[in-house]
Automatic annotation (TrEMBL):
Entry keywords, A to Z: Flavoprotein, FMN, NADP, Oxidoreductase
Domain of life: Bacteria
Molecular functions per Gene Ontology: oxidoreductase activity
Listed PANTHER family: OXYGEN-INSENSITIVE NADPH NITROREDUCTASE
The keyword NADP appears for this protein: yes
Protein name per the record: Nitroreductase
UniProt-listed InterPro entries: Flavin_OxRdtase_Frp, Nitroreductase, Nitroreductase-like
Domain Nitroreductase: 9-163
Source species of the chain: Marinobacter gudaonensis
NCBIfam families: PRK10765.1
Family to which this protein belongs: Belongs to the flavin oxidoreductase frp family.
Length: 245
């Protein structure tokens, strides 16, 4: 395998960091690398908030569910889907702009996600570790207020960055056969493949915790479809100007 593929396959979430600071010029280069990600129609519908203020980082850590590493990592970034800049630019150019379309929400969210993943890969290539923080969507209105986000901008997720102070095992992924279909969506083997992956994940959890965590991938999914549904997100997005028309 070439080094890029090996780097991608070695990804793991880091939640413990050393006290070493990230040089500002390196952080800037990571953002520049992020900007080189694909963008729908070159809209570049994202903004990144570099949260430096310690009080704000502690408040966001609490709002995200008590994730202390938000306050402890070297740098914390919030990736925002941003349709304000581009629609304002088109309007200044003379367009009769339509705002609040569902496609605009999708474009901005995808753009922000692709940009963030470029940042993540660039960071790991420099020996940094990272952890995505989807928990900021637990209280997105409060996070938006802290970050003073305008209309047509919403926080998609955060990212903790720093030099790793841990080396966790790489979490297994579903077998390729479970996600790669040829020509058509055929799920005839899904139950069999998921059952096998459940056994793999059970072994992973047991080894990682010294036998204290005896669960499977399927079991771990249950809260995502019962308790962690974030029903507030639709109304929050509508108030942000993403009316999903």
């Amino acid at each position: 395998m070439n080094p890029t593929i090996e780097l991608l396959k070695s990804h793991r979430s880091i939640r413990k960091f050393t006290d070493q600071k990230i040089p500002p010029e390196l952080l800037r280069e990571l953002i520049r690398a992020g900007q080189c990600a694909a963008s729908s129609n070159h809209v570049q519908a994202y903004s990144v908030i570099h949260v430096i203020d310690p009080d704000n980082r502690r408040r966001i850590a609490e709002l995200a569910g008590g994730q202390d590493y938000i306050a402890e990592c070297a740098d914390f970034l919030v990736f925002c889907a941003d349709m304000r800049r581009s629609t304002d630019a088109a309007e200044r150019a003379g367009a009769e702009v339509t705002r609040g379309m569902t496609e605009q929400l999708l474009v901005a969210t995808i753009d922000a996600s692709l940009m963030a993943q470029n940042v993540a890969i660039a960071a790991e290539s420099e020996g940094l570790g990272l952890c995505y923080i989807g928990g900021i969507r637990n209280n997105p209105a409060e996070v938006s207020e802290i970050l003073k986000l305008p209309e047509h901008v919403y926080p998609v997720f955060g990212m903790c960055l720093g030099y790793p102070d841990q080396t966790p095992e790489i979490k297994p992924r579903l077998p390729v056969e479970a996600i790669l279909r040829q020509d058509y969506y055929a799920d005839t083997r899904d139950e069999e493949l998921v059952a096998g992956f459940d056994r793999t994940m059970n072994e992973y959890y047991r080894l990682r915790t010294g036998g204290n965590k005896d669960t499977t991938w399927s079991e771990q999914l249950k809260p995502l479809f019962t308790a962690k549904l974030r029903p507030h997100m639709r109304e929050f997005l509508r108030k942000c100007g993403f009316e999903m028309k």
